[in-house]
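Two proteins follow. First one:
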Amino acid sequence: MLARQIQLVTVLLIAAPFFLVAPDAASEEIPEGITVTVIAEYKSRVSNLDKVRLVRVLMKPGAMFDNVLVQNEEYCELKKGTLTDTSHATNTTSVYTVGSRWAPPKGERHTVINTGDEIADMWVYQIIEKGEEADKM
């Protein structure tokens, strides 16, 4: 059983997609031009984790998550398009293209913009710890 749990976490760490963040506390709405769909959600069998959630994020060209907080441990993959991510903590900018995988640090604020000319398709695995606000994306 423990081997299976370790295998699941390893798969998430190695093969997981891009991050989804919650809108700023002042605005609970998903920004215009962005569609967020929960694809799957599973209760965790790991004692300190509540659940694992797979989310798909579609962003139209020019759509932006502005100054958003990364709420959960997240692992991301860009399936289509181009995204530009600016970390407010480190003041660094990263450009992600098809096949890019990354894990934005939990607790940091980011601005993410679709800087491409097509819809960006981002998949995000969220690891939600017990006691966290699980409904926050």
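Second one, unrelated to the first:
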Amino acid sequence: MRLFHRLVRYAAVSVISTSVSLTVLAALVATGATSAGWANVIATAIGTVPSFELNRRWVWKKDGPRSWLGQIGPFAVLSFAELGFSTVAVSMAAGWAARAGLGSTGRTVAALVANVATFGSLWVVQYLLLDRILFRSPGCTNKPTLLRRGAEESSRLAA
């Protein structure tokens, strides 16, 4: 039941941060204030802040001091790796919509769909990384699979 509640909270955080990002993305693309790719960078950077804080405090119940190297840095790297994938998708979708003559609304919808599809496909991967590595409890003996396999291999070779 604990996993279910955590997943529900994680989904709620995703809805909040995605709503923030998509609002910024739509406003920037619809007004032509910047290219679709740069609009996606700006929107993702803005949406990353509530995502980090809500995931850390509400989903994984971390209330101590933030660690730049242990939490903020890796979360930013993860977020901006996802950003790289989504920016390519958003740029391609907006370019396709423009070439197809879909106008401002069609271009905006294509950019939003590409953004949601990319981040949606990475949603499970991000949850596992946050749960197993980034926000894992210090006393947790449930090591991530790769670390566990490495430790088992080291033990086997030492024997």
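SUMMARY FIELD: Helices lie at 2-31, 36-59, 68-99, 103-134, 145-158. The two ends are 40 Å apart (CA to CA).
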